Precorrin-4 C(11)-methyltransferase (Roseateles rivi), 278 residues
Amino acid sequence: MPGTVYFVGAGPGDPELLTLKGRDLIAQAGAILYAGSLVNEAATRFAPAHCEVADSKGMTLEEMAAWLIERAARHAVVVRLQTGDPSLYGALIELVQPLDAAGVPLRVVPGVTSAMASAAAAVESFTLPELTQTVILTRVEGRTPMPEGEALEDLARHHCTLCIYLSITLLHKVEAALRAAGWREDAPMLVVHKASWPGEELLIRGTLADIKARCRAAGVVSQSMIIASPTLGARQWPQLTRSKLYDPSFTHKFRRATAPANPSSSELPDDASSPHRD
Ligand code: SAH
């Protein structure tokens, strides 16, 4: 009976942001292949003493696949540990295909992606009623070309929340794209370096006009999330449009209105019988 290869999202950096499922699998693993120094800590902290732990940093995809297939022949639980969530920028499918071809069973365990850890670090909400209800996870073009229609300039025209991965050394491209899409010079921006890493997290707040200079001054050139959103800084705003779900005048499945209808919040959500936000 071959073992199973579990692709586990290690989360953004803080080992305590691993899921319980991920931690339990690491604790049962006979072998762990982790992606670079980012997830080293979680791999070594929770792995059993006899577990074989290897860094994939210097391996090709073929070598990684061969390593996992070989270990799955000897161990019931083999873990491939990846940063954040395995479904984002993680070469997941490239590794899954050779495992499928070799008949090795596999499962994926999600992880906290760095965009969410960045929102948490900064106490920001990526959605706010009537401002934006949409989040785009993307990157700018580096060595990986962007498919047609996905240039940041095109995506930014939605004026929704943009979480931009893998682009901190390309901030000039981010700025140019936002300008071309009509974002104002004073549009708030946020860069989070090493979100959730104990003692190493850095928040840089600025505007489209000055975020690059602020990042340069702070020496931030790697492992950073760039966020542009009309919701940034809402914690300080005196006036917010409230979510209808918690509005005293709004009745839904779980609560009766305790106040008369408020004209600014009388519109019903798409499905008035159930909460539209959790
Ligand atoms: N699968 C990962 C993303 C891997 S791509 C995830 O879900 O988060 C690597 C990029 O993720 C980095 O260039 C950076 O933009 C972002 N990133 C990863 N960890 C981060 C962290 N702790 N803080 C900020 N950004 C991070």
